[in-house]
Specification:
The complex is a heterotetramer, with 2 copies of chain A (406 residues) and 2 copies of chain C (339 residues). Chain A is an alpha/beta fold and 406 residues long. Chain A has 14 helices and 8 strands. Chain A has a 6-stranded parallel β-sheet with strand order 1-7-8-4-3-2. The chains are: A alpha/beta (406), C alpha/beta (339). The complex binds thiamine diphosphate (2 copies) and magnesium ion (MG) (2 copies).
Chain lengths: 406, 406, 339, 339
Amino acid sequence: MSSPEQWTHPEPGDAPAATAATPTAEQVIAGLRATSEGGAELVQLLTPEGERVENAEFDRYVADVTAEDLRGLYRDMVLVRRADRECNALQRQGQLGIWVPLLGQEAAQIGAGRALKPQDMAFPSYREHGVAWTRGVRPEDLLGIFRGTDNGSWDPLATRFHLYTIVIGNQVLNAAGYAMGQRFEGRVGNTGGDPDANEATMVFFGDGATSQGDVHEGFVWASVYDAPLVFFCQNNQWAISEPTERQTRLPLYQRARGYGFPGVRVDGNDVLATLAVSRWALDECRHGNGPVLIEAYTYRMDAHTTTDDPTRYRLSDELEAWKLKDPIERVRVNLIRHEHADQDFFDSIQADSDRLAAELREFCVNMPDPPPERMFSKIYAEPSPQLDAQRDELLEYLAGFSGGAH
Amino acid sequence: MSSPEQWTHPEPGDAPAATAATPTAEQVIAGLRATSEGGAELVQLLTPEGERVENAEFDRYVADVTAEDLRGLYRDMVLVRRADRECNALQRQGQLGIWVPLLGQEAAQIGAGRALKPQDMAFPSYREHGVAWTRGVRPEDLLGIFRGTDNGSWDPLATRFHLYTIVIGNQVLNAAGYAMGQRFEGRVGNTGGDPDANEATMVFFGDGATSQGDVHEGFVWASVYDAPLVFFCQNNQWAISEPTERQTRLPLYQRARGYGFPGVRVDGNDVLATLAVSRWALDECRHGNGPVLIEAYTYRMDAHTTTDDPTRYRLSDELEAWKLKDPIERVRVNLIRHEHADQDFFDSIQADSDRLAAELREFCVNMPDPPPERMFSKIYAEPSPQLDAQRDELLEYLAGFSGGAH
Amino acid sequence: MATPVLNKTSGSTSAAQTTTLGKSLNMGLRAAMEADPRVIVMGEDVGKLGGVFRITDGLQKDFGEHRVLDTPLAESGIIGTAVGLAIRGFRPVCEIQFDGFVFPGFDQIVSQVAKLHYRSQGKVKLPMVIRIPFGGGIGAVEHHSESPEAYFAHTAGLRVVACSNAVDAYWMIQQAIQCDDPVLFFEPKRRYYEKGQLDPDATPYPLFSSRVLRKGDAATLVTYGPMVKTCLDAAGAAAEEGRSLEVIDLRVLSPMDLAPVFESVRRTGRLIVVSEAPRETSLSSEVAARVQEECFYSLEAPVLRVTGYDTPYPPSKLEEEFLPDLDRVLHAVDRSLAW
Amino acid sequence: MATPVLNKTSGSTSAAQTTTLGKSLNMGLRAAMEADPRVIVMGEDVGKLGGVFRITDGLQKDFGEHRVLDTPLAESGIIGTAVGLAIRGFRPVCEIQFDGFVFPGFDQIVSQVAKLHYRSQGKVKLPMVIRIPFGGGIGAVEHHSESPEAYFAHTAGLRVVACSNAVDAYWMIQQAIQCDDPVLFFEPKRRYYEKGQLDPDATPYPLFSSRVLRKGDAATLVTYGPMVKTCLDAAGAAAEEGRSLEVIDLRVLSPMDLAPVFESVRRTGRLIVVSEAPRETSLSSEVAARVQEECFYSLEAPVLRVTGYDTPYPPSKLEEEFLPDLDRVLHAVDRSLAW
Ligand SMILES: Cc1ncc(C[n+]2csc(CCOP(=O)(O)OP(=O)(O)O)c2C)c(N)n1
Ligand SMILES: Cc1ncc(C[n+]2csc(CCOP(=O)(O)OP(=O)(O)O)c2C)c(N)n1
Ligand SMILES: [Mg+2]
Ligand SMILES: [Mg+2]
């Protein structure tokens, strides 16, 4: 799969193209095996069985990772998953209007998020609850979006974590512009002095998003302006009901070849590999060698959202196969094998996640509804008498309003 | 330049990216030399000096080209250039509102256009007067666009030459859809029987257009649906005042690598090479191996349009250097050297082009203005009482109108 | 006095069956695909999944993958390739997953879809339909509850329609597909589950015509899409207070068919335009502008508008306040009558 | 009675100099870039070439290539990266080369530019300006003569303004750049060469205010952008016939400032709205809708509209018939007065 040439000559035939582009169950499974076996192109440092494998290129980027650090990454993933499951439950119980599960993508998001330095900026899509966690955005701050009380209550500038973006692809261009700004301000390629003077930006999007014009234009702008931008594509195999084959002939990391910047495919279920590759990519950007594309090869283990029904379009074998590559389990096994974690550690994390979940639930069920006037607040930075008038009109109407009796 | 890896590591430095992306006069010249020397990646069959050079891969696609055929291609180019110059003059004389010169791109357009079979479809941009010629669209039919009497008076379905598209990139998606349709109708990959049962589509766009989201999405759709589509990019070095370096780090033909279909750079000033590469690409498509990207490396020898002033942004040396690679001259030299054309031939073509120019001018100056009601005609295929009412309102107003005296 | 005429179609109502607006669309699409092999359906998740609202449920299974296309994820691509397919002679029906996601395809719609027939002076037809589930009231997140119809109504060369009930849904989608002009087809997603009595043998009402759904003489309510039910409910409530309101469903949003509205206002002298969309430079503006010109001497009160506010669509906990409801409509009726 | 007040600004007019609308914009941009190093200009051909209309002429030479960016050729990219630059703290001024080419950037404008301040509840400001030369009358080919302002006026969260003369151009572009909200800045390209007397020391008129340019009492003309000159000419011609028309330049197209219009109509009792844009669901609809509600008892005739027709912009040989001119305006005045 590594050379496009192998791909450019589908056999002639009468079959309409549409079918040619449809993956059969066999193809899906084949694709799966290809990955579980890894292959030269997939950067992996921790096997699904929790074994640390060497990688000449990327080992050095995690050489400083201590057992404690690894426990920290494990803790991150467990807590993030627990919060995700709790929110899923809260939706089922009617406390949230909808939830977008990250189940299965914990390693990709924690690995990438922990590679970011405080001065770096991140632009998420709408599934990056794990990255949010690493930026100090509490799960509580995400709830408003899904409960319908706000569009995200954290401060994007203070946390250096932009608001969620739902329109597929939009944030990639916004991130490219932000990264251009970092470069224009001389925050890139500074040698000596304070290394933290250098900054980079990371933008998150999915496999489906790669088809959008905005993502392409982000590639063009970032490459032409040498922007310190890491394109972090979580290929979770599905865009709602559409498999990746619907979006591309080639592995997505190879898309970068056509623009003249590096593209790497990393095992997105391997937190250590994702951390290493992300650190490398961010360093490249901070030194002025951006942009870089990372394809984190992972899997959406739950539905697209709580309103989705995956049984309509994918095989359960597929999920079963991916369960064997669970991102959290392989770290647990590794920690135990090397006796880097004892039962107390796991118990304490259990306790932490119970507390986190309880607090999250407590917070959620007590969230107040926003007042009607909120609808009109902060639409403009400068005064707007027109909107003030509409607000007053509504409030007056609601006031003079004797409970709906007409 | 052939491997992206050589491109992905610009040196770190404090200079803002914007400068890094600006070509100096030296860079422009350097880029030029790179091409005039050709290089492995540039497919060339006729040198600027008119010598036929062998090409193992592509010779066979023009093996059947006789001296008469070559004279035909020469004639095409001369007549098309003459029509172009005449229209330029007509604009200067106020007969046209604006003109978009093709000067310098004759070989790219005639080579591509003559590779098309009658059953193939073409989607032009707005500069493809040469391609129009090969589709039997008379220069006269183009005039309305530039005189402001219509938006193109030819029949896009009968000529299999779509209307000009001015919004950069739009036509690439329209062409992808059309090519999908050819495939869905089973017009691709038919073996045996009538070879003309197979069809392909060719879409024309410029170097600047490659940055547009629509062009990317066209690449995605065409590749995912195995559409019989040839992306014909005329890299004439400039998008109005912006050099190609503003749009990409890599040679544009390499953009295809990221999508998994072939990309080839051909000498766009070499009509024979362009014919060969275009025939090859169209054949690939007809056999179900589409899409294919062709970058025709050429030069816009005149202004972007008659309202443009190139002296504001490019060096005259550049134009001088390209004059040495004139697309018509090299064929003339070749015909003479091999005694494939005598003076009578050149005289007859001179006469033909004089006649063409005279007829064109005659036609232009006598073009009637459209009647006011034309404004309302054919907006909808089905009746529209609302527009009929507006039309009647206007006609009544104009009728009751005593020459503007109020 | 107040005669509900909703769901009445001329012709026998013998074979009438109960259906929902969403199911009617599915049946209508199926009927259109059976009637014409050139009809193809394309969009995100319209195949195996049957669309996020299941409007295309079962179509790929029955008509195959080259007539029901799960496309790559890009709206300009969906519209732009549909244009090419239409040029080739197909009749594409594009699904835009939610109202807020039509904008990446806006350029193709405004620059190509709306203009190609005119540019070619009729030599190239574009018989394509763009389906857009629109409007709020379903407790969704951002970009999933918008009412972008005004953008298209202002665009010359497009035909814009909105269905409001199960019976219209079944006929209008088929009529839109049969139309040789490009049609923007707006579906009131919050009403997908509203029931209606459908008689497939009945003669359909013309596509490009507004329609009086309820006769009345005290005042006229003009609306479309999701607000039609709201207005009918309001008219029902008003009737109990002895006030008979006329309710007109625009159905065609551009080019508008306002004759029935003029006729009505000349009788009632009062008009309230109801729409979910923000008010500024909207469809409600156009209706008011036209009516005040055509019915200047008949109006006993200014044309009033009950609409969404000039704000981005709010977080869903606030949508009840944002969206016009029965009370806001009747409040406007009171204001009009008190003028 | 008829006092032309055009180009009068409070404060001294001592240092007044003659300039054109286009040159004023160039001077205004230069002044804004000198005043604030965070101001950057970006777009297609805005650098070496100085833009196809030379509005940015000389700016790259004087401010450098990282403050005046010749961008890749894609409007979504221009707007989308400007959003990111604004988040970073820059104040980008984007040039869209022609009105018809803003649509590839429409999604970023509607989905991000218009909403980000609201979505973040004020935590993120987007001080960016999108300059759009608009309107016809220059004999151009397709897509180069459109009037897309209604699309943006209908979009909550945007501020939309249009300048009509050389003096306003100089001040309004600077005020738009200083504004912490995103501003869509429409420039009447056919008026780029109209002259005016500019006094850089004068106190500018507020940006978001409509303005009476000529007093009158027989009827009110409300317009904006390129049609302002047309209406002033019409008022001049009418004056010679002893009819005094009031002329109001909207200047701000959204959110609208209609107080001066209401005040005027209460005096004149008659209103004609003049705009190049197609009529259906347009700015002229909104003005008519608002005025008939606010001035119901003052109107002696319905609000009349003189606009482009509901057609794609025609080939340029027909634009004279398409575009409102002095005669069509006066014809409407006659109709209004004869009501
Ligand atoms: C422009 C746009 N079109 C359609 C949608 C509806 N939609 C939401 S998520 C999604 C699939 C995205 O898939 P992918 O990019 O792989 O991200 P994932 O959800 O798998 O993380 C779609 C089609 C949208 N949000 N925006
Ligand atoms: C969407 C869009 N944006 C801007 C323009 C204005 N414009 C017309 S031609 C052009 C440059 C195109 O360059 P290129 O693609 O290289 O084609 P060329 O003109 O060199 O043949 C531009 C910016 C346009 N027509 N469409
Ligand atoms: Mg995905
Ligand atoms: Mg070019």
